[in-house]
Amino acid sequence: MILEIPEPKKKISKKAINVWRITDFIQNLIGLLIIGALIFSYHHFNCVTWIGITLYVFLGIIFIIMVYELTIRPVLLQKTWRYDIDEHYIQLKHGFINRHSLIIPMSRVEYVNTNQGPILRYYDLSVLTIGTITSANKIPAIPTSEAQEIRELIVHLAELDKDSSLKDELIEQELGD
After folding, report:
1. 4 within a domain of the structure (yes/no)
2. How many domains does the chain have?
3. Could you give the C-alpha distances from 24 to 14, 30, 67, 86, 94, in angstroms and in order?
């Protein structure tokens, strides 16, 4: 018997686009400052020509990456992120080049955590982390109130699922004896 699991339907917040743009801008700005300092040092200390050429190539690469990360990537990530939660599974699906689809059985959930940095807090968003024994999986940029509701729902469903699996084990042990 093959179990039909519907595709996840819930989307993350559209505010995620702004959060990712700000985060990526800060990261790329740090990279530009480092390359800028190295280019300044190159001109100040009259280094070998190939070092200058390499630094300017890196500057161009960082600029291209920055344009991509500030314009295209956040929109595509927001459009492709999907998640869904039911009484048996948590489904996560994301990615536009490398597509990832993950199904986490409720019986495997060990912990659920919400996290907010200063940028997420400004936009009233949270990252929901779902931990199993072997991994931690995140649902990024969902509204804080929804994240808290989902966290409580997952904890409740995981407890129910573990209770039913314990009952099944006890029944099997009693039948085996």
Report:
1. no
2. 2
3. 16, 10, 10, 33, 19
pLDDT digits (tens, 9 = 90+) for 106-161: 989 999 999 999 999 999 999 999 999 999 999 999 999 999 999 999 988 888 77
**How far is Cα 121 from Cα 173, in angstroms, rounded to an integer?**
49
What confidence category does residue 33 fall into, taking pLDDT thresholds of 50, 70 and 90?
Answer: very high
Number of Cα atoms under 13 Å in the Cβ half of residue 79? 7
CB 152 within 8 A of CB 160: no
Q: Which helix (H) or strand (E) holds 82?
A: strand 82-85
Give 107-112 contacts, CB < 8 A, sequence gap 24+. Answer: 107/158, 107/161, 107/162, 107/165, 108/132, 108/133, 109/154, 109/158, 112/150, 112/151, 112/154, 112/155, 112/158
Question: What is d(CA 57, CA 51) in angstroms, rounded to the nearest whole number?
Answer: 10
Q: Considering the domain boundaries, does residue 10 fall inside one? A: no
